[in-house]
Structures are given as C-alpha cells and as structure tokens.
Amino acid sequence: MADMQKLYEGKAKIIYSTEDPEILLTHFKDDATAFNALKRGTIIGKGEINCRMSTELFQILEAKGIPTHWIDQPAPNQMRVRRVKIVPVEVVVRNIAAGSLCKQTGLPLGTVLKHPLVEFFYKNDELGDPLLTRDRLLLLELATPEQLDQLKTMTLQINEILTEFFHQCGITLVDFKLEFGLDVNGKLLLADEISPDTCRLWDEGETDQTKRIMDKDRFRQDLGQVESAYQKVLERVLNSKTQG
C-alpha cells in the first residue's frame, strides 16, 4: 500500500485511494474503541473477522437487491469499495430493547419491540453522535426528506434480511448501526461495515445474559473472550451461507 495515498483514518478503518478515482481500498484495523473512543483497546484478529463478515453480509444483501459500496476483498483485512459521499447520519434499527434504549426509556433489557425502531443519529464525534428528530435532521440539512424516507425504507429491508439470516445462524439480531453514502450518480448505497462492532448479537442457544453476548458489548463491559465471540459469529455466518 506504499503507493496508495491515505485519505482517512477512523477508529476501526483506514481508507486509501487506488489507481481508479472511483474505487477506494478499506483497511480494517484490530483497534477497538467504545463510548466515543473514551475506551480504547485491541481485539486480535478483529480486522480480518470484520472484513470477511462484512464481505459475506454485503454479498447476501446485494443478492436481495440492496445496493452496497462493496466490490471485492483482495486481502484478509482489506475491502475494495466504490467511492461514496457519506451521508452524515448513522441509522440504528432496534428489534429488542438493549443499551441506550433501556437507559433512556426505562424499558427492561430484552423487551421485544412490536415493530422495529429506526433512529437517526448525527454522525459527529464532537457532539457525541446525538439522536436527532426528523425535523432537526432537515434543519441541519444532513439529508433531504426523500433521502430520509429512502434511508428508513432500505434500513427496514436490510433488517428483515439480516434478522432472518442471523436466525439461521442461531443468533438474535438485537440492534445494529448502518451508514450510507451517495455514489457519483447520486445513488444511495449501503456503506461502512456490518460486523460484531456495529451489531448487537445474542446467542439463541444461551440463556445467561452475559454468556449470550457475541458482539462488542463484551469489550465495552469487560466481559472477556471478545476474540472468541467474534470468531464464533464469523464461523456461524460462513457455515449458514454455505448451507444456504
């Protein structure tokens, strides 16, 4: 990658230019952060696991008609993607009450929601990625009304596909975060990654509230066995995709 220019380095990934101005190379890091980077650490092998899992899940979604920025995976921790202009809105969909939803509403952990809850957060580290209403999003001109409608529609479609797929893996998709971007033609594409870093995943075969956790909550809560949990998720994803 010596001949490539580093365009951006975030908490979990580094973005490089390529010989094609419309194609970028994403390098997945083993670095781990939580609570807006107030907690930092390393999860050995995380980069390769998250890259491979994102590749597999992007392909599943593409096959179901969801447009993504994914092109291919030239190396274990590298992904080639289409260049997009990231929409500065993180879209979170929740199927079961956990995390901040419990803290902010008082809902008991594990409450199954009657309908998936889609929320928009301002992608801004300085402000702490605040939850915004639709009117505030429009006030800040972070997206057009049409884009917000499209974001919600695509997110619910993705949730339906991934919920069913993870269920086949013996995993409950509790909630997850998505990011989207606009390509050179202004088309909205699913971007970033889908992994235990961005999803809250529970083992369907485990009733213990701590042991069932298979995602970055193990790092956030100092539960240990983070690497093995990530690896187990990837193994189930690969096995389920092969059987499918």
UniProtKB/TrEMBL annotation:
PROSITE patterns for the chain: SAICAR_SYNTHETASE_1, SAICAR_SYNTHETASE_2
Say if the entry is tagged with keyword ATP-binding. yes
What Pfam families has UniProt attached to this entry? Answer: SAICAR_synt
Which pathway does the record list?
Purine metabolism; IMP biosynthesis via de novo pathway; 5-amino-1-(5-phospho-D-ribosyl)imidazole-4-carboxamide from 5-amino-1-(5-phospho-D-ribosyl)imidazole-4-carboxylate: step 1/2
Q: Name one GO molecular function term.
A: phosphoribosylaminoimidazolesuccinocarboxamide synthase activity
**Which positions fall inside the SAICAR synthetase/ADE2 N-terminal domain?**
6-236
The Enzyme Commission number assigned here is 6.3.2.6
Its UniProt entry gives the catalysed reaction(s) as:
5-amino-1-(5-phospho-D-ribosyl)imidazole-4-carboxylate + L-aspartate + ATP = (2S)-2-[5-amino-1-(5-phospho-beta-D-ribosyl)imidazole-4-carboxamido]succinate + ADP + phosphate + 2 H(+)
Keywords in alphabetical order: ATP-binding, Ligase, Nucleotide-binding, Purine biosynthesis
**What family does the Swiss-Prot or TrEMBL record give for this protein?**
Belongs to the SAICAR synthetase family.
* Protein's recorded name: Phosphoribosylaminoimidazole-succinocarboxamide synthase
> In which organism is this protein found?
Planktothricoides raciborskii FACHB-1370
Instruction: Name the lineage.
Output: Bacteria, Bacillati, Cyanobacteriota, Cyanophyceae, Oscillatoriophycideae
